[in-house]
Design a protein that fits this description.
The chain is of the alpha/beta class. The chain contains five helices and 17 strands. The chain has a nine-stranded mixed beta sheet with strand order 14-15-16-13-1-4-3-2-17. The structure holds zinc ion (ZN).
Length: 311
Amino acid sequence: MKLEGIHHITAITGDAPRNVDFYARVLGLRLVKKSVNQDDPTVYHLFYGDEQGAPGNDLTFFEYPGARPGRAGAGMIHRIVWRVGSADSVGFWEERLGGEGVTTAREGESLVFADPEGLEHELAPIDVPDAPLVARSVDVPDEHALRGFDSVRAYTPDPETSRALLEGALGFEPRGEGEWEARGEQRGGRIVYDQSSTPGSPGAGTVHHIAWATRMDDQTAWRERVVDAGAHPTPVIDRYYFRSVYFREPSGVLFELATMGPGFDVDEPMETLGERLALPPNYESFRERLEQVLTPLPDTRAWRRATAGTS
Ligand code: ZN
């Protein structure tokens, strides 16, 4: 039983329209689900991904309108590392982001930048056997598109405190100083810890949690392993598009284990993912009111490229 890398990463935005513009237009990801917070349906839960909304390229945002900027600190993820195809792709993004007024920096072979609310990203030309998970946008050629998550970087006072849970219960392999990889049959993903005791503050532009991908039938067994390791997971929660279990790992990072299905086409056709507001069944009767209350978002269809053969 192995985890299949990173399933999704969830962060916080205080400005949903600008968030859509940045991730769907500038970065060229597909808005694969426009849903609401299951605890507060008057705010969005936005999901970006590749064409299929596959686990491995799924960045999601809780909207807290007007939320103050947060700062990543101990026990928090401070950087999301994406795979890109080549050094040429890094050059493409340097130019594209620069043209959008986004400050970038070269770090080794990678490009580092922050989203409009300060969430840090790294684009890394990393050669892995994993299938590239690509979205088709008007302005980003396929060869330069983001290919899915490679890793995250998190702050901890001491990476060693996480070793036993990662290697024991969760089956991660050590890859270097403060670095572990979860690699399954299809995909792999890593977490890298940077030493820091400075407390952070949650808010706009910070990561809320990271989910690791489990095969559909394995989730209960994973949960039991986490319990046996002394962590305190939630019960299995039905998120409609996948099923989830949450717990904090010893460094303080909020982990989720999420099933690889059923997927984002469970409540709308794959061709029009993310175009209509998706509501959990118990909120469906409030649709008209919610559509009035929720912040209007840009129409992402103008940024989408038709799939070959369909137009
Ligand atoms: Zn999640």
